[in-house]
Amino acid sequence: MKRTLRTLLWGGLLSLLLISCSSTSSVTPYHPEKWDEIEAYIRKTWPEFTERNPEFPAPYLYGLNPGTLYYWDLYFHNEGLMRHDYWDIAKGNLDCMIFQIDSLGFVPTAWNWGRDRSQTPCFSMSVRRYYELAPEKDTAWLRKAYHAVLKEYEFWTNTNGNAIEDHTTPIAGLQRYGYHSDSTQLIEFYDKVLKGRFGLPDGATPEEKLKVAAHRMAEAECMDFCPRFEGRCLDYIPVDLNSYLYGYEKDLAFYEQELGIRGPINWEKRAADRAALIDRYCWDEERGLYMDYDFVNQRFSPVASMGGMMPLHFGFASPEKADRVRRNLSLFDSDGGLVVCEVTPQEIVYQWGDAAVWAPMQQIGIESMLRYGFVKEAKNISTKWLNTVTRNYMDPMPATHRPFKYGDGTRHPGFLYEKYTRDGQINDYEYPCSIMLGWTASAFLVALETVREN
User: Fold this and answer.
1) Quick check: 18 pLDDT over 60?
2) Which of 194, 289, 178 is nearest to 235 (CA)?
3) Cα(237)–Cα(172) distance, rounded to whole angstroms?
4) High-pLDDT (> 70) share of the chain, %
5) What does the alpha-carbon distance between residue 444 and residue 385 come to, in Å, rounded to a whole number?
6) Where are the domains of the chain?
7) Cβ contacts of residue 413 below 8 Å, gap of 6+?
8) CA 202, CA 358: separation in Å to the nearest integer?
9) How does DSSP classify residue 191?
10) DSSP symbol at 108
C-alpha cells in the first residue's frame, strides 16, 4: 500500500501530540446526581418524538425533524427505545423500513427527500437485536424481516441483477458507497448544496459538476460529508460499509437457522471471506488502524476515522488488532468525547470531521471496547459522553443561537441536542443545532448502563 511522506509524518506527529489524551487515566464524572434525572426525562419524552406518516404501516420515531425517518439513525434509536421497553415504537421503526424495502428495493436516506441514495446499512443489525431481545419471539415477523434483509443485501452487493446502484469495486467481495441520481439531479445537487458548502466555483462545466457531485452524492450515502474520501468516495472501499455487510451475512446465517431455511448461500463462509478481505485491504499495519482503501491509487485514506472501529464492533478483528486500535483511541479523543476523524489540515469544517462529537461515535466506541473486554476505555468514553450531555442539559452553551427550527434564539436548560463539539459545547457549525432525543438519548443510556455496570 503506497503511503505519502506527508501522511506518515502527520500521523506520527499526531500520535505524539495526542498521547496526553489517551484513555489510560480515568475521567471525572460531572454532576452524576443529574444522570437519573436525565434518564427519567428521556424515558418520559420518547413518545413526543413519535409520529405517523399515512404512507407507512406503523408509527415511528423521527428523532430530529418531524416528517422524516432517517435510515442510519434506526439502530441507535431502537437501542434506546428497547432499553426503556418501548417495544411497539421499536417494531414500528422496523416495519416502516420493511415497507420501504418492499416499495423501493432499498431504504432511502429519507423517504420524503432522499430517495436518490441509501445510507449506511444498519437495518439487519436492528432486526436481529429486536428479535433477540423482544419479550416474544415472533418468527412470522422475522420471516418477513428476513426477506427484506435479503432484498436490501442484494441492493448493496448487486447480486441477482440488482442494478439500482452500482456498489461494485475491482476487488470482488468488497463494496463501495454509491448513488442513483440522474444528471439533472446531480447538477442541481452541485448548484444548491455543494457549491455553497464547499466553496466551489460558479463557472464549472456540466461535466465538472457531474464528476464532483457523483463522488459527493456517494459520500452523502455514508455518515454524510466527511474528509475520509478526499472528495472521491466512489474510488474508495469503506471499512465501515463492508463491516456492516459482514454483519448482514452473519445475520442471514442466523435467520435461516432460526427459521429452518436451507438457502443456496453459505452465509458463514461469505462473512469469513469478507472479513479476510477487509483485513487484507483495510488493515494498516504501520498505523495499527483499520482504514478506508483507495483502490484507484492503491493506498489507504490519509484520514483515520471512527469507521475503522466497525471490525471491532462486529467482532471479527483479531485480539491483537483490536488492542492496537484501542491504543490509538487518542487520535479521536477530545474533551467533549470521540470525534469522527483524526485531526487533519482541512480547510473545510466538516459536519462529520475532526471537530464534531456525534452520539453514534460514542455508542460505537463503547460497544466496540466492551466487546473485547476493554472496560476502562469503554467507561471513560461513557463518562465523557455523560458529562457533555449533562453540562448542556444543565447549562447549554452557547446559550444563544440563530433562530432555526425552534425558539427565539435563546437556549434553556433541560434538553438534549443533535450534536456537540470537541470542547463539549453544542455544535452550531453550518446550521444551529436542534433539540432532539434520538441517538443522543440512546448513546446516553448505553453510556449510563456501562458506567453503572462497571
Assistant:
1) no
2) 178
3) 11
4) 94
5) 7
6) 1-30+328-454
7) 393, 394, 395, 396
8) 32
9) I
10) -
